[in-house]
Description:
This protein has 2 domains: 45-300, Glycosyltransferase (Alpha/alpha barrel), CATH 1.50.10; 343-546, Beta-galactosidase, Chain A, domain 5. The protein contains 16 helices and 17 strands. It has helices at residues 4-27, 30-35, 71-74, 81-89, 102-116, 126-138, 140-144, 149-169, 176-192, 197-214, 226-245, 252-268, 287-295, 364-371, 393-399, 431-434, and strands at residues 306-307, 310-315, 318-323, 343-347, 350-354, 379-381, 409-416, 420-427, 436-445, 450-459, 466-474, 479-482, 488-494, 497-503, 507-515, 522-533, 538-546. The strands form 2 sheets. Strands 1, 2, 3, 4, 5, 6, 11, 15 and 16 form a 9-stranded antiparallel beta sheet that branches. Strands 7-8-9-10-17-14-13-12 form an 8-stranded antiparallel beta sheet. Helix 6 crosses helix 8 (149-169). 39% of the residues are buried.
Amino acid sequence: xxxLKSIYYYFLSIQIILLKYIKKIYFSTNYYNKSLLSKTPQxxxxxxxxxxxxxxxxxxxxxxxISEIDPNVFWLKQKNLEGEKERNSFxxxxxxxxxxDGKALQKIINIWMQKYSKYKNxxxxxxxxxxxxxxxxxxxxxxxNNGIFEFKKKFLNSLISQSNHLxxxxxFEKDYSKxxxxxxxxxxxxxxxxEYENNYNIAIKELEKLVKDYFDQDGFPLTRNxxxxxxxxxxxxxxxxxxxxxxxxVPEFLENIIEKNLSCVRNILTPNNQVPLFxxxxxxxxxxxNKFIDDLGFKVKEKxxxxxxxxxxxxxxxxxxxxxxxxxxxxxxxxxxSGPLSFEYYLDGRKIITNCGFxxxxxxxxxxxxxxxxxxxxxxxxxxxxxxxxxxxxxxxxFGNSIKNTFKVSELSFSQDRNQIKSIASHNGxxxxxxxxxxxxxxxxxxLNDLSGCDELIKKRDIKPLxxxxxxxxxxxxxxxxxxxxxxxxxxxxxxxxxxxxIKDESILLEKSIFLGRNKILDNTCITVTGNLxxxxxxxxxxxxxxx
Length: 548
């Protein structure tokens, strides 16, 4: 039997793919590229501070001398597509020697304009193009310094042509990540050039709409992906600081969403200054971004124990992050991972229990595996993932591997007293197929400084015999061995430091697993508790404590 919704998305996907193909052909015509040429700006209204680029990329002073590179060799085609995109984004401009590299840089940009002044698919990809405009404008002092008139005119015309291309196509862009990049580029072009100040008005109007459509009431992206939170925060902060740099009024909606964004960022940051690996997240070094927002004087007004479906338990050197949120809606679920009630655990700033991370840029297979419930530190029944994913290649090409079913998270409870900090939640993701509710209680004992858990399978109707697997993925580099009694696992942290994972009356396996959180495959170990569920409830108690 055909699913009408699936058929609809299939034909919609075909339509979108065909439209993109036709647009690419049109963009490559001389007619279209001539239409992008418009009035050459007479001057820059202001010169933005190049340090503001630190918001979206790493800023290093004098990392390499561009004058030592042959300009003709610089633009030789890269074997790696991502490497080619990175080079053509020009974000590397923050790495050049600003005192001696001006002339060499002009030669390199001049060659680029000769090669790519007209539309070319990957080079003019909206994300690459937006970054290039932003970087060019923020580094215009070194690019145009002592340049001849013809180069300046050619450069400004190229800058405006690319901006016009973005403006022409903003209404067609459905990817929110690309849209925020486009809007930042348009906003900056409208601030810098008086002749194109309407670009600024367009960008502000579309930014306000994006904020309303993309963020929840906490200021967290509807994707529920912590990496997306960081990504959008960077660009929104960049927009605000460019507006302030131009001595313009910052719209209230922009100030409000940045306040909420950065509050979310600071609340979910892990002890090692990263984000928890939920819903498509990978490890990301946030030291520079943190320093950047510190330099801006941002202070967290309110510490929260729950941020957009991420429960946070903290006491002294213990930190726990639990996914108690619902799956995102279609259109926001491209990178969603099926890990309801999964958790990550930190002790003394070191991650102990982890989710496997998202298999981005590795392979399609790795990406699919990383989205399954078994790749998260939570429970599976009959080795079945809680969430079903769209399998149509055509639909996935347009919408990503979207989810086909949903579930509810309920019984949400957080409590804290002088003895413990405790979180309780349940989900009904297995109720439809297997007739079971899963409830998880996680607590930190303040006196013993231990982590305890109680996992329950609650039957909601008569059920057939089921197998369950309760997984605790260890962070890469941690060694584990079963103890002589067989009901505990020794987790070796260092030569003289270890933890005990303890569970009673259950079968424990040590399984090989993989960690994908660094965009590459790493080996790790998984503590797996297995058993069978007959027609009755099941309660599993576990504990992680210091081995004394």
